[in-house]
Design goal:
mainly alpha; Serine Threonine Protein Phosphatase 5, Tetratricopeptide repeat; globular
Length: about 110
């Protein structure tokens, strides 16, 4: 569907949209990228963050759960737990948000990953 160069370009474009507060545009690009590269955990993690920043915490929670199932690296797991915590908080689930934050802190080992 896309060459590696095109995939990399679209990843950079999505990242730039996120940096400049255009999370909805980033989410659109990331959804397309997820279809092209479903095993790329970076894409899934960034999509969850874009959904969260776009105000769709329910979608972000479902997407971050996919991300957590793909991750093996503690740093990436920690980042996904932080996104999960923020999504729960946005949904008003303070208890679940605190639990996810505690998992983030445990995985990050006090390093302040994210």
């Amino acid at each position: 569907m896309f060459s590696q160069r095109q995939l990399n370009f679209l990843k950079v474009l999505a990242h730039l949209f996120m940096q400049y507060g255009k999370a909805e545009k980033a989410a659109t690009i990331l959804e397309m990228l997820r279809l092209a590269s479903p095993a790329d955990s970076w894409i899934v993690r960034m999509l969850a963050l874009a959904q969260l920043q776009s105000g769709d915490a329910n979608a972000a929670l479902g997407t971050v759960d996919l991300s957590l199932g793909m991750e093996r690296d503690h740093e990436h797991l920690a980042t996904s737990e932080l996104i999960r915590s923020r999504a729960y908080w946005a949904l008003g689930n303070a208890h679940e948000a605190r639990q996810a934050l505690a998992r983030y802190q445990e995985l990050a080992g006090g390093k302040g990953v994210a």
